[in-house]
Amino acid sequence: MARPTSRHSRPGRTLLVLLALILAMGATMLLQKAFTPKLGLDLAGGTTVTLSPVTLNNASPPEEILDRAVNIIRDRVNGTGISDAEVAKSGDNIIISIPGAGQNEAIKLVATTAELRFRQVLAMEATQVPQDLATNAPSPGASPAASATGSPSTQQSAKPGSSRSAGTPAPSASPTGKALSSALTAPTPAASAPAEPSATQRAQGQDGQSTGKKGQNAKATPATSPSGSPSAQASTPPAQDPNSAVNTQGIDPAVLAQFNKLNCADPANRGQGVQDDPNKQYAGCEADGSYKYVLDVAKVVGTDIDTASAGIRQGTTEWVVQLDFKSKGAGAWADLTQKAYNSQEPRNKVAVVLDGVVITAPNIISPIPGGRAEITGGFDQASATTLADQLKYGALPLKFNRSSVDTVSSTLGQDQLMGGLIAGAIGLALVVFYCLLYYRGLGIVAVLSLVVATVITYTSVVVLGHNAGFRLSLPHIIGLVVSIGITADSFIVYFERIRDEMKEGHRTLRAAVEVAWVRARRTILIADAVMFIAAIVLYFLAVGGVAGFAFAMGLTTLIDIVVVFLFTKPFIALLARLKFFAKGHPLSGLDAERMADTHSPARPTTPQEA
User: Fold this and answer.
1) Which of 217, 347, 413, 592 has its CA 20 to 30 A from that of 126?
2) Which among 434, 566, 441 is positioned nearest to 498, based on CA atoms?
3) Which residues make Cβ contacts (< 8 Å) with residue 499, sequence separation at least 6?
4) How many CA atoms lie within 13 A of 527 on its CB side?
5) 3-state helix, strand, coil in the chain (%, to 5)
6) Is 149's pLDDT higher than 80?
7) Distance (Å, whole) CA 186 – CA 94
8) What would the pLDDT profile of 156-181 be if each residue is shown by its tens digit?
């Protein structure tokens, strides 16, 4: 027989833990200004996108390729199984229904192919000159000769220089503020370090590096070089090679020709959505059109990524996409960063290319082993999470065109929602009536426990909706209503165990509460474990509304354990100290009439398992 453990019971502290948990969830709702749950497609409507595959000769795509695309899109829009998004195949088309999303958000989420490449930069050139910096360009020209501060000033003025002669050094200033890894968090010093011995060379452009050694002997005239050189060159513009500032070694002439013709200032020419060949060199634009690049063959691709997640870089408020490579990808990534690290500007950069557009192209200031990297690019939480999901679930095997984008209304509406809530309220009222009728005073404990469970469930649904994409649909509501019976069952097991201990063991209420808890909690945990395992199996094997029902059932099963352990048991322990319950008041539910020994004297009095 288990010994009483009342001396170890601290019900007040346990109730304070529960209060702290509820307050923390309430504070989260308050900080995020989220006070109502998000509703699913059947209750709030959403956006429907129809995608049509693009194939050669307009032939139908293979069935297995289309099925793979459906699975990838389903993972993107409903990777956790709780967002209530639906993906269906209709002939050769794919129809996606996303609850509560605007059209632009839906299109961006599902239509991107998400082909990721990591390519070494072979050449780059500025395509846009900021107006404010261009007007200030002559000013630094007079100051470098006067003091040492001329070095950074000259470097800064070289950045927005003419796109032809200063194109090569300029990129070293623009993308260097971005990073791929913790080893790249401070690329700016790397860009300024080589400027000290060759500040005049930067001010004059890169011609001194590739066309002659004249720039190395021009140390005496740093102030006149920036202003005098352009005018001197202006007299013979037809004879100048447009690629004089570009190291063309190892660049495919055809790609170089594309690079010269590329106009990234026009958004229509930036190649968004292009599926570039990873085995060939590529000419592409930066996402904002400020730079164009010649990129080497891709050494690391999206299939080399093991996992991707969005997060905030430590010590900053900047959102980044964190990547973990597979074993093969980790080795290729280390080789790529080693090669870039040993190369000269601008080949010491690695470009991250997504669907044909350069997201970022940072300097590699040291080799990066270990198979981990970060992508930065001015992300917010939504864009970082979207990109991480696209990379995590893989690229689409086909390119799709959007045949239609429509906003749809809810299929059930408020009437059905109210009907489900009314059904839940009726079930809750019947459970409360039964508990009060049969258990009297102890029934108050059951009612308060259900109230606490309702509060925790509501706050959980709201917090999950605004942080994990959980949307409340009719199957979710059914799962929550069913959980009322699961929660009430735990109370009944404990109450009956207390009565058995008082009748058969002839114990006081305080002793019976502790002994009964030791025996009843095992029964409660086993019952909840069976329910939770069933919910897990159903969640992973099903899709759509059935998976949503399983998620809701699993969530409320966990909440039942929290309520029974952190509220029901300690609250009964406190009530056991009151004379109303300890002395067996007729309305307590533990009166002498109910505690009378109704079994035969010859019956064994060994406590039985609940």
Assistant:
1) 217
2) 441
3) 590, 594, 595
4) 20
5) 50, 15, 35
6) no
7) 44
8) 333 333 333 333 333 333 343 334 44
